[in-house]
Amino acid sequence: MRRSRHLLAAIALVAACSPALGQDTGFYVGGSLGEASFREACRDFDSLVGVAGAFGCSSKQDGAGKLFAGWRVLRYVAAEVSYINYGEVKAQGVVGGATVTATSSVHAAGVSALGIVPLGDRYWLLARLGLLQSRTSMRASGAVNASQDHGETELHVGIGALAQIGGRWAMRVEYERLNDTRIDLSTLGVQYQF
After folding, report:
1. Would you identify the CATH topology of the domain 2-193?
2. Which of 112, 134, 164, 188 has its CA 20 to 30 A from that of 16?
């Protein structure tokens, strides 16, 4: 519910932005901040300590950030590289009557194709399809001491909106999913087109 309110506020902010869209093609850079939801964190923590149901939670959230650069090749298509820090989540569980604390952090970098659909002169819808190389680090301490680090190439999908806010500046609101690691990312950011 809280995430939905943040996302609606971000969409309203983008919709309130004005001016006309400048260049339709060219190089751009930007950054975004938001919230990552680790939908399978506690199940992953159970697996890490080897005890089903040790962590009684469903998902965990943390602040996240993204840097991106892209080339808008055509009016309706862009290629983009991005680096995403999904943050770190933490949970406490019980194993054999004793407390165990687990943490998980995820970073990823990759490339995506963006489909861009205009909604008038200053607003655009975005659709993302790409691949990310993710790196996950999990640690448990207390009743069980364990660690696990692994990387994999994952499908990266998302939707969003772009609004020109003057000159070469634009605002972006996006919802993205890291497929195998099962992390959802909601962000609000800015981009500058050269």
Report:
1. Porin (2.40.160)
2. 112
